[in-house]
Amino acid sequence: xxxxxxxxxxxxxxxxxxxxxxxxxxxxxxxxxxxxxxxxxxxxxxxxxxxxxxxxxxxxxxxxxxxxxxxxxxxxxxxxxxxxxxxxxxxxxxxxxxxxxxxxxxxxxxxxxxxxxxxxxxxxxxxxxxxxxxxxx
Length: 137
Prior knowledge:
Blueprint (H helix, E strand, L loop, with lengths): L2 H17 L10 H103 L5
Family: Belongs to the CEP135/TSGA10 family.
GO cellular component, one term: centriole
Protein name: Centrosomal protein of 135 kDa
């Protein structure tokens, strides 16, 4: 066993002890365990990094939710106002349709009245004409 291997062994043994692994470590598995411990440390650091990133993202999300709350309330008010205006528009359209039907009916009635007035005048003139002419013998 060389000086380099002994240094690796002591360093690795110290790291394993810090991590709570107190099992025996043979020199045959030294490089494999070293690689596995390195991967474990790297994975642990990545996990910490992504946990912090996740926490920051959650905090940002919470801040954004607080920031959009006034917009949600304003949106609810605008939806109610839009619905009210839509109902009002529908009522005005119905009223306009009723007015148009009334105008159409009035025009038809005026035409009928004009026809009846003309017919009445014709009938009155016919009656006057017959009264003024002597009866034929």
